Amino acid sequence: MKAEAIKEIKLKLATLTDAHDPYLTILAEDERSGVQKLLQQFYRRLEKEQALKNQYFEMTRFERELYQKGHRFVAGIDEVGRGPLAGPVVAAAVVLPPNIEILGLNDSKQLSAKKRAELYAEIQAQAVSVGIGVVDHEEIDRINILQASKKAMLLALEDLTIKPTHLLVDAVKLDCDLPQDNLIKGDARSVSIAAASIIAKEMRDNLMKEYHQIFPFYAFDKNAGYGTKDHLNGLAQHGISPIHRKSFAPVKKYL
Predict the structure, then answer these.
(1) How far apart, in whole angstroms, are the C-alpha atoms of residue 115 and residue 119?
(2) pLDDT at position 1, please?
(3) Cα dist from 216 to 28, 88, 135, 199, 219, whole Å
(4) CA angle, 88 as apex, 227 and 130 as ends, to 5°?
(5) Residue 84: which of 193, 214, 188, 211 has the closest Cα?
(6) Burial 182-196 (b: 16+ CB within 10 A, else e)
(7) In whole angstroms, what is the distance from residue 168 CA to residue 191 CA?
(8) Do 215 and 87 touch, CB atoms closer than 8 A?
(9) 166 pairs with which residues across the strands?
(10) Are 194 and 188 in contact (CB under 8 A)?
């Protein structure tokens, strides 16, 4: 009997998810090095997927506890943009369905741009509701960045199409009438907060890319307003733009 082509084996393994499938036993007896390499790659893929499943399950702990207590809509809330020298602070509130599984959810800062964009699309497609809150540079200068971050979070909460019964908030305590848990490094501990972190970062990064088209001297498309070398060189050569935060050093010295 003619041996199965390696190309065909590769296609079959790409769709296989069961580590105990009898087909794998047949491949294990195939002495061709190309087949054995494909088998190794297959098992590594399963290990990686299982690790992601384990991580996801661990990151649903807070949500599962709340569902068991009768909460139906749990919103994760996070913000992005406290540190930049320019642009707004952006927050997101995300309510995920109880039985959803979006593998790879994590603190947005830990993800590649490509993976973050993929997860952003998946969250938008599967979330019960997504809310966005934006507070601009002028308001940041007026009330300070911490208060602006809290305001953006509350705006994101108000932007949801349903009212949550409980909040999971990254680090800060919000002044609202809903029960909440305030989790330090919550974007790495809760899938709902991680989802909010991803939504907020994608929204803000894309907004800063749009600002780059208007104010091209500061490399906003690459640094999202953070104080990189290119950004600081732009400040030194061209002064501040209309979206710079005037209360932030080193922007102050260019006023």
Answers:
(1) 6
(2) 56
(3) 57, 17, 22, 25, 6
(4) 125
(5) 211
(6) ebeebbbbbbbbbbb
(7) 10
(8) no
(9) 74
(10) yes
Map tokens 């690459």 to a residue. 222
Distance CA 90, CA 133 (A): 6
Burial of residue 40 (CB within 10 Å: 0-12, 13-18, 19+) is: exposed
Q: Six-digit token pair at 62?
A: 């807070």
Percentage of the residues of the chain whose pLDDT score is greater than 90:
84
166-202 confidence digits (pLDDT tens): 999 999 999 999 999 999 999 999 999 999 999 999 9
| 9 contacts: CB under 8 Å, gap ≥ 6 | 27, 35, 38
DSSP 213-237: HHSGGG-HHHHTT---HHHHHHHHH
List pLDDT tens digits, range 53-99. Answer: 999 999 999 999 999 999 999 999 999 999 999 999 999 999 999 98
The answer to whether residue 206 scores a pLDDT higher than 60 is: yes
